[in-house]
Amino acid sequence: MNIVFGSLKTGGTPNKSEFDYPVMRVEAWRGKGTSRRVMFNKAACQLMSLDADSTQKIMFGFAQAEPGESQRLFVINTESFIREVEHVTYNTSKNYARYSGDETTERGKSISSTRLVSEIRSFMNVEDESVPVDFKIVEFSDNGEAPVYELISIVEPPEELSEEDVKETEVDFDEVQPEESVMSEPAMNGSDDAGYFPVGTFEGEPVEAEEPLI
Question: Any alpha helices (H) in the chain, and if so which ranges?
Answer without folding.
Answer: 42-48, 114-123, 163-168
